[in-house]
Amino acid sequence: MRICKVLGPLWAAAKHPMYAGKKLLVVQPIDETGTPIGASYVAVDSVQAGTGDTVIVMTEGTGVRQILKLGDQVPIRSLVVGIVDAVEADAR
Amino acid sequence: MYLGIVQGTVVAERKATGLEGTKLLLVLPVDDKGAATGDVQVAVDTVQAGVGDLVYLVGSREAALALDPWFVPVDAAIVGIVDGVDTPGSLRP
Q1: Subunit contact B85:A26, Cβ cutoff 8 A
Q2: What is the rounded CA–CA span in Å between residue A70 and residue A19?
């Protein structure tokens, strides 16, 4: 999983049927100090996350399918699975 | 999943079994500000996207799961056409 910052929601009317009713968020991966690392991407929300939240994003399809319980043919790869309250890390 | 901008179409008459009838598009992966995040790639379209559309794609094994039957050799699939992104300084579709 990766720590990410939620940048905001994304709307799409035309989408694959498996995305029906799913809330999509644009997330920016960050390190433990909050510094952005890499490019932003799109994730499905499962924890009612909002803009500005620090979240945990899983980017592995098999785990996503186990959580969503929508069957074996779910073309979803990134899922917000937690809202981070605090990160403690030793100074480097 | 990641954002992309459709830049063109790819026509291939001879394709691997399972890919018959699929529409192939040329997509530039971008971030929420429209900056390219990688090289132009070929993706299967599942939502009737067109050139110039801002779309989102799913990659790797899950790309094949967007198709029916799903056991097909693809590693990028367009699964939505973006109508709006509400992020600071985001691009408009």
Answers
A1: yes
A2: 11
